[in-house]
Amino acid sequence: MFQYDFMQHAFIAGTLIAIMCGAIGVFIIGRNLSFIAHTFSHIGFAGASFAVFAGIDPLLGLLLFTLLGALGVGQLGVRMFRRDASVSVILSLALGLGILFLSLSNVQATFTKTILFGSVVGIDLQDVGQIIILTIVVLLALAIGYRWLKFDSFDQLGAQAAGLPIRWISIGFLLLMAIAVSVTVQIVGALLVFALMTIPAAAARFYTQSIFIMILLSVVIAVLGVWFGLTVGYYTNAPVSFFIVCFVSIVYFIGMIYHRLMERRRTAVTRS
Amino acid sequence: MLKNVRVDHLQVSFNGQDVLQDLSLDVSAGELFAVIGPNGAGKSTLLKCILGLLKPQSGSVQIESDQKKAVIGYVPQSRVIDDETPIETKDFISLGQSSGLLPWLSKKERKSLKEIMEFTDTLRFAKKSIGKLSGGERQRAFLAQALVRYPDLLLLDESTANLDPAAQEEMMKLVKKVAREWHVAVIFISHDLHLVKEYADRLLLIAPGRYEIAESTEVLDQPETLHYYYHSELSMDHESTISVDPMIHAQFSETVK
């Protein structure tokens, strides 16, 4: 499997993206931003389609649209975008724009498929380089802002009372999320960004109550998911993103059952 | 160390309606200062102004401290705790240690976290999820999170309201210890006049359009003063419990809710 360059690239890029998604996902879950992440992926689809239409690198289009989307959400307030109606309006608008740009640019159907469902075969050395740089940017920003981000994500009232600049933290995090979504879309596609950005983190919280261990577990689940997806996808010739989703979803459901059993055990011990 | 908290001619209004009118007060280090009054009197608005979350139309809040920027600890009545993302109490308390650049806690920070947890008696449920704590335990965790930043000023917004009498006493004893031993100024809002009488050094009585600062809690023994602020026949009997006409008590409870 590793004798092929494209598989080497896929493993390097996939692992980095999984580390980034696993780490940022814990804060996405803590801040209840799962659906905004999903909306960003659709905005990214519109951005990538625009890039094809304009004849520029799709990653640039992805970044441009998602970063502008993040600034828009940050300016108008995250609360407004947590509402179902606002999310569905923006999601539909982004998809519509994406379809418009694609029809105007006369591209092949495979490109649409790649952006919507992801592709590992098309990742070349230049893409790997871009992914490495962007992943380092996101991870460094998360590490530097870790304490503020943690406070604001898990106790916003406390953070506000402590005098933390919560508005700037929110905008900064949305920008990081926009970069992470732009990078992730290339592997799992716009429709399955959830698979890497929220499911590993959502699963990790079933196994631990420590934020730091939650981040480590989330990273491990995401990385194993990507490795599993790439390996099985290679041998079966079936879509990689399907196997990634399967793996992380199974870990999630096992975690849910484990959590419920532990809760029952605790309740039984308390009663006795 | 804190020198003084000075609220000077504070004026706040919402939609043309005055909430705080020309309010001035001073609170010193080590003092327990209570704020009492009916709902809508502007008590929480005052705390928000002190916290810097609300900008007054005029007037100022000055916190004189030895530190470059005074640190304020805030303990609310309750907080939205997301049960879907349970975090352990120790982690929740250490969220207050937000000033370092490194993601992990230094040796000094770990030591002070342990000391605060011992002081607030939260160490025994350190590994328990914050969402699974009892009301009293949770308030202690909120207090510990405020204390872990070593505040100059501690603000408590009805933070004992949901506790049973024993837990209220325990919480206030702890707060008193913080004020006296750490020389921290404490401003607390409470509807429990018994608790105010027992723990406050001075108090602010506030109602829409009027306020007064009482230099001692003896004012709580004057039914006419309480009536003036609460518009109810509130009084405290000699056992320091609230004694109210049953009809008025029902109305008052509704207001408190």
TrEMBL record, chain A:
Topology in the lipid bilayer: Multi-pass membrane protein
Q: Could you tell me which Gene3D superfamilies the record lists for this protein?
A: ABC transporter involved in vitamin B12 uptake, BtuC
InterPro entries, from UniProt?
Answer: ABC_BtuC-like, ABC_TroCD
Q: Which UniProt keywords apply?
A: Membrane, Transmembrane, Transmembrane helix, Transport
TM ranges are: 6-28, 35-53, 59-78, 90-111, 131-149, 161-181, 187-204, 211-234, 240-258
Localisation per UniProt entry: Cell membrane; Membrane
Q: What is its main location?
A: membrane
Name the PANTHER family for this protein.
ABC-TRANSPORTER METAL-BINDING PROTEIN, METAL TRANSPORT SYSTEM MEMBRANE PROTEIN TM_0125-RELATED
UniProt lists the family membership as follows: Belongs to the ABC-3 integral membrane protein family.
Q: What is this protein called?
A: Metal ABC transporter permease
Q: What organism is this sequence from?
A: Sporolactobacillus kofuensis
Lineage, top ranks: Bacteria, Bacillati, Bacillota, Bacilli, Bacillales
UniProtKB/TrEMBL annotation, chain B:
Q: Which CDD domains did the record assign? A: ABC_Metallic_Cations
Protein species of origin: Sporolactobacillus kofuensis
A Pfam entry, by short name: ABC_tran
What positions belong to coiled-coil segments? none
**One MF term in the entry's GO annotations:** ATP binding
Q: Which residues form the ABC transporter domain?
A: 5-233
Q: Write down the superkingdom of origin.
A: Bacteria
- Recorded protein name is Metal ABC transporter ATP-binding protein
Q: Which SMART domains does this entry report, sorted A to Z?
A: AAA
Keywords associated with the record: ATP-binding, Nucleotide-binding, Transport
Keyword Transport belongs to the record: yes
InterPro entries reported for this sequence: AAA+_ATPase (IPR003593), ABC_transporter-like_ATP-bd (IPR003439), ABC_transporter-like_CS (IPR017871), Metal_Ion_Import_ABC (IPR050153), P-loop_NTPase (IPR027417)
